[in-house]
Each structure stands twice: as C-alpha cells, then as structure tokens.
C-alpha cells in the first residue's frame, strides 16, 4: 500500500498527503508538510513532505482502498499491577516536592487475528465522528497510527492562535461531577496555568469560560484559550509554537522541571510511547497550520496493535480510580474504531 498521512481540516474532510515522503528538519516554504514527531521531540527530521496532496471527504478517501472489512483483534488488557509501580513512583516524587502533577501512560497490546481491508473500515468510521474530535493518521511501510483526538495543541488563525486546556475525565453519564470535583478542577487549573505561563511572555492570552466537552462514552473539562502575539512581533514558527506549548500539563508535568522530565523519560523506558501524546499537524505554504495532540489512537506494527492512555496524577489521586480512567479512555478508542473483539469484551468483565 502507498504511504500516506492525513489530518482533519473540516467536518468529515481531511488534508491528505501521498508518499513517498521527503523527511527534513525544516519545512520547505513552497510545500505543505506534515509534522510527525515523538513525544520527547527527539526526532531531528519531523517534517514529512508528501509527493502529492489533496483535500478529500473521509468517504472519498475510504473509496481509494479496497472494500470495507472490519479487523478482528485479540487484546491483552493491562493489569492493575502493571500500573501500580508508576503510580507509586509518581506519588513518591510528589511527596519529595519534585512536581505537583504528572501524566504516566499505559498501553494495552493485542494482535490482529484478521486484518482484512481495514483502512476503508477505519476511514468510513471517521466520517461519522461527533463534534469535538479531530481525526489524523498515517501509514508508512508496515506501521502506522490512526486516531481521533479531543485535544487541540494549536490552530493558527489570522490574528493569533486557538488552543485549549483539556483535563478531567468522567463517564459521560456523570459529566456534571467534573464541575464540582475538587481534584478534577485543580488538575484542570494546573493545565490552564501552564499554558498561560508558556505564552504570556510573548503576547496577550485570553482565557475563555471553562465547561464540559461531552464525547461518546466520556466527558472532559475544557477551557478555550486564544493567544495573540505582541504588536510588531514576528509570527512564531510552527516549530517554535510546538516547543513553547508541548507537552502541556495535560500530558506532561506541572510545574515543568528537570525532575519531571527525568521522571517521564524514565517511565518511557518501560512503555515506549513513541508518537503517543506527541504533536501531529500540518502547515501549508500560506502558513495556515494545525497541530493536534495525538491521543485516542491506535498504533500498529505488522500484526501487533496497541492503544495507549494517560492519566493525570496528583497527590490526592487514588490507584483504582485512575486505573479505571485509563481503561475508559481506551474503551472509547475501541468503540470509535469498531475493534471491540469478543476476546476483549470477555476480559473487560472479568
């Protein structure tokens, strides 16, 4: 199959690039390019320039592939004991005063028992995405990723940038609890404060009213934020905005510190999050730009598949509650893409 990448630019529509891709440390000014990096921004060639590009509806993109055929997956859900060491390590670091909040990641792994012609299946499901989710993905050789994230890192507009704080999770049937839960409200405030702290030295930051983002299955606290650079300032480059914002406290650590960075990197040795939670975006020659936070996705290599989820830990966090939130987020991804195999359904109720 030909390499390609896409990112949603409007309801049910996507900007699609077709390979081969030219990978560079910068974007060629006359060409659009995708920004695809790892979580720690260690990739020195994050810009991927497609040989051809176009804008399509998801149904039109799905029609480029063979007929719809849903995959089947055998899952191996993580056990509470897999998460407990991360939880305990984070609490010990917070007790030492290293940071106030940190976001560990857990993966659920599986294998395809039948792959079929699943690109068409996945893409047609993206055509039905509800508001509040942004689709993205890529396929290179025998590995790739597809996702529908609720989190916007930034979108460049004529007079500034839209971004958001997204933190705090509940099953959608209990969404109103988020508005009164002290732990969830404090976690959300840490994310807002982190974004403001990173942008305020460079211009004006407007914080919108916080409220609920209701999605299929789960809900989040969300605050819209608008940033406009100081008058006369040269517009920040895409890469500069990435470095300024990523990772927000929604996916990283608060406050940002060398100790927090060390903790995240040490935790990553056991899970290898790769592109999970990393910026994923597109910039075009007119400098219109969109950068998403690549969560709520499926990653695969060959016959192996996995879904990651992260959770914000504070000193008052409880192990069982946070572990259940991790599961809820992965469940949403499985439901969105129709990969709730019989094996998974059985194990989910054990």
Top keywords for this entry?
nine-stranded antiparallel beta sheet; Anthranilate synthase; 350 residues; 35% strand; 8 helices; alpha+beta; disordered C terminus
Secondary structure: elements and pairs:
Blueprint: E1 4-10, E2 13-18, E3 22-24, E4 33-36, E5 47-49, E6 52-57, H1 58-62, E7 72-76, H2 80-95, E8 101-102, E9 105-114, H3 118-126, E10 134-140, E11 143-149, E12 152-157, E13 160-171, H4 182-199, E14 203-207, E15 211-214, E16 218-229, H5 238-245, E17 253-254, H6 258-271, E18 279-283, E19 289-293, E20 297-301, E21 304-310, H7 319-337, H8 342-348
Antiparallel strand pairs: 1-2, 1-10, 2-6, 3-5, 4-5, 4-18, 7-9, 8-17, 9-21, 10-11, 11-20, 12-13, 12-19, 13-16, 14-16, 15-16, 18-19, 20-21
